Amino acid sequence: MYFTDADYFHPRIEMAWMDGSHRSTVVSEHIVRPTALTIDYQMYDRVYWADYKLGLIESMAANGTDRAVLIKNGLLFDLQMYIVDLYFF
Question: What's 55's domain CATH number?
Fold first, then answer.
């Protein structure tokens, strides 16, 4: 499972096994307020999230590599993300 931690001093995206073991941080740099995390296992095996403070939607490979900015300077208010054929709702 993947989850965000929007800690004021150390925001990050983490992953762990479903029982909470094997917890590790996959994103901890250039991130301020991570929210709205979603996972695409069917098509591209990627993780997507929004950063409310930076106004970004980013993605990375499920293993934490290949980080990319998809939308920059977007207005992200009370955002929930769903992926359907790479369209964000």
Answer: 2.40.10
